[in-house]
What does this fold into?
Amino acid sequence: MSSESDASSSYFTDYTVNQVIKALMKKYKLDYKSAHDMVYNGGLKIYSTMDSKAQKAVEDGFNEGSYFPSLTGLKKDSSGNIVSDKGSITLYAYDNMIQDDKFVLQDGEYKNNADGSITLYKNKRLNIYKTSTANGTDYSLELKPSYVIENSSLYIVPGGYINIPSNSKSMDKSGNLVISAKFIKNNSKLVTTVDGNPAFTDKLYILQDKVIQPQGAMVITEVGTGKVKAMVGGRGVTGKQLYNRAINPRQPGSSIKPLAVYSAALQRSYEYAEQGQKYPLVDPGNDKQGTDNYGDYLTAASVIIDEPIKINGRIWPKNSNNRYSGPMTMRKGMQTSTNVVAVKLYEQIGADYSASMVEKYGISTLNKSANGDMNPAALALGGLSKGVSPYEMAEAYATFPNGGVRVENRVFTKVVDRDGHTILTTEKKKHKVLDEGVAYIMVTMLKSVVNGGTGSNAAISGVEVGGKTGTTSSNYDIWFDGITPKYAASLWIGTDVNIPLTSSSVSAASLWSRIMRNVPNIRKGSYKSAPSNVVHKNGEYFTKGTEGGLGNKPDEESEETEIIEEEQEQTNQPQSSNNNSNNQGNNQGNQGNNQGNQGNQGNQGNQGNNQGNNQGQPGNP
It folds into this structure.
């Protein structure tokens, strides 16, 4: 694979190869095996979009452990297993899984049958799955994740596989797995006993490599072209086909607000003004403000009162400092990541319009079902049921400095066969999301977040940085999604299970800055100039026609509203650790079967995916 130099990265390379395989299958109507063989055995040359220096900047940043926050708030049971708030086991202590290189079945986990077979009970330390293969039905037996602490760092062992031939396994009516007497009798070096209990030796099971926590993922894309310049999906692991957190969703927290709320409000107002209509403000009946102070339209200068509001009979959302800051402009609300401001704007926009905007930004994981994301906890505060990926967030944020036009990410430009013929090409795929004037105003608001707001740690000397922080409940996930004139980049930090971090997204903003300042040409280029439909009035920007009906700017937007991110940023979302643990196990099984029980790293993947999906979800207000 060719890039701007010969350097490569497994995360970027593996993803690019997979995209090429998909493109070959689609264009030439090939099956997976044929396309795979073309890539690996057909002498193809893939021209990637990767900038090796940008890739190295991310990798170097991820290799420095001191840049990452520590873990805190570990809850353990009497056996040393890490448990959720509800007491369910999230991670087993490694010594509770493996002793003297053996997995020893405990009382209550099995039954010795009269015919010499062994029944393994479901929902214990082993996951049992029924799978379908080309040869019929099989049953997968996998170890649940565990943890070990080495040199004060926590590592997760994502699980492992117990390799028993399909003809030696069966499932009873209760979903328990039965290992045949013949297999046990003929494989005494694989299945033995310890103190009378059956035990599997290390010749029978394969453990995945341990993975340091917390983890991270980052994607850098070029504004205007969609060319992905760097992608890293984890740290502290090497190899091929690694679990790529850059393309798997996690809870975005407040980093969703510019997409679902702030730009949506400005764009909707622009549309009404174009139609010659004032914005149809609604009184939600749950606050004192009603429709006052917004102006004729929702604009960066609209005054929104940060005050207690009631939704479904309870005061929500709350700021973690349990206080409210009074009147502030929309711009200030985004700058300080004030939750009430975002929810009030959501009430004016409505779920349908907010969700449609999120989808226009290219977010593919939005759940629009009745019990999904069509609520303020998800759209206004980022508690999405499936989360978002750094890959899609980088693409979405690149829309702002590109004048409101989203360009789909791409990781290769062309593929050439061994005879020099070009067999695949990629072109810019553009989608209009925002009016150019709205995009310009959003860029100024994103820059405000860095110039004196929650994202101040993302600043880089010599370039104007804009962006948005994101923090989920208990600091499970921390984000910074940022822009410069030339690049948009999304950075996520978190653990592969629900373990709180010691820092909120100020750490993500700091690491983002450390990395991006080393990206080539980061200080080159300039943002688009204000288009002709942007007017400047009383120190604020408006799209033409939306500047009317404004009241006075709040006099006191200083000390009351200068709230540090740790106090204001979090989404106040209760945890769903039980769902996490269940999904973690289910996906281990699926990935293990798909990989044919052969890859040590592959299974991390879906495990982390679903761990992220369910963590930090809000209770719907």
